[in-house]
């Protein structure tokens, strides 16, 4: 899938030398989030279910004495039936001081994108509402859908996480 964009003013959100993104996969797409929001990456482990929580909130885990909610992005965005195997990982995020986990299919690498490698996200059929996208990062033939994880995790629908974690 190749997409070309004629706009060069895309990276106004990130000026300067470039930003580092953690690349991860959900289904057939590869996404990136700001590495500064990532606290650690863990293998998937059993979670404690919470009664009456939406299905995409898998439950909570005890992370060194802190109870943190875990969201399964594959369920949240209807990306097929999630499979939990040795590649499944939980990305532990620190969003404005709130710790939470995000289940993804796999994590590939950390990539530095310069501002000219970030293009505006076109209106296209990604799982994520374009409000939550920073843009598309392009590295050679590879394309990362860059997610504004702060915005996504603080959105109204994710507000339920705060109630659960409380």
TrEMBL record:
CDD domains referenced in this protein's UniProt entry, alphabetically: CheW
GO biological process: chemotaxis; signal transduction
Assigned keywords, A-Z: Cytoplasm
Domain CheW-like: 18-158
GO terms for cellular component: cytosol
Main location: cytoplasm
Subcellular location(s) per record: Cytoplasm
Annotated protein name in UniProt: Chemotaxis protein CheW
Native source species: Massilia psychrophila
